[in-house]
Amino acid sequence: MLIALVLSILFALVVGIAAARSKKAEAVFIPVLDVLQSIPILGFFPIVILAIISIFPSQIGVNIAVILLIFTSMSWNIAFGVYEAVKSIPHEYLELVSMAKSSAWDRIKSLYVPASLSRIAYNTQTSWAVGLFYLVASEILTLGNSTYKVDHGIGVALINFALARDWVSYTYTIIALIIAVIIWRFVF
Fold first, then answer.
1. Mind listing the pLDDT tens digit for each residue in 139-148?
2. pTM exceeds 0.85 for this model
3. What is the spatial distance between Cα 43 and Cα 4, in angstroms, rounded to a whole number?
């Protein structure tokens, strides 16, 4: 989840800033993001899993597939937040930065990223919750006659506890998941 979140935030910063500052990038990125966020993850879930597992046929492939699916559930929301934040920077601030002849990197680190932080924090809460759903849903994958699962994970633990009829451990896992979501909410 953390790997997918970090990748989502980095992706959001690159795409969101580019779309907000360049008309050409905006004309490409915003419609593409809109279409990608409209496609249900479960719709392309099997194709992504098959493609990644065919490229990386080991346990690493399963883990990469899960990270990619969680990334896709998180990134669009955060990218739109960054885009909106950078787009709403007052024109006067942009003029000041251009008068100071700041480099592109200086503008990114001193203006665009700070302006985006509140949107990133806010949108990350929703993205994290959506990511948790897909985390549990994607940890055990059945494609045709093959079943793939991550070594350790919330979904795997829940299935194993349910199959073993260990309802106490199952309940504790659900409670721990709820507590983790509450803690995450306060972190952001």
1. 666 666 766 6
2. no
3. 19
